Amino acid sequence: MESYPVPLRETRIEMRVVNSRFIATVAPVFSVDEAKAFIGRVREEFADASHNVPAYIIGHGATVTAHCSDGGEPSGTAGRPALAVLRGSGLGDAAVVVTRYFGGTKLGTGGLVRAYGDAVREVLAALPRAERVPTHVVLIAVPYSLYELVRLAIESHRGVLLDAEFAADVTITATFPVGRIDDFQSALNELSRGTLQGEIVDTRDAIVPLLPDGARE
Asked: Which of 6, 16, 140, 168 is the 20 to 30 A CA-CA neighbour of 66?
């Protein structure tokens, strides 16, 4: 499992090339079905447009499912340049639809390639990003006297406290990025003098927003 950047939320920009209006919409999608649903929704929203050109990438790196379509534009002038820019962005799990309202002036093959590529570049430049991070879900039974210390240790190791059940002890459920779990376990062992150890009960991906400088929130 690896961490990789993904769109944080759906984003849209609009630009004009000569007399044509281009609207680019990008969104996070985590399966082919989600990508198809997003594309269908945008096509329905802009059903009166001259063209709706989709492209998507599911996964990241060597294991991706990618698709594009020219949406009625001449072959190779729309979907391929849109997908090329999407691939070059480094993002995974992303879908984009570039909507065109024809303005009466033909752009030519080269003009179309540039316009569709530029539309995707513009929307990706405006896109807030997140990171898809593999995480461990950890279960810890903590005495009341150590609860606050353990809660602070979870926060300081970039963990998220999901639940705390108060009974004879406090049963905590928390998640941690996979790369942080060993340090947390060491801290937990130290503050409890060797009496506590978190039990990993699940491993799943989480979406972590990124700050503008690329750091995680």
From this structure: 16
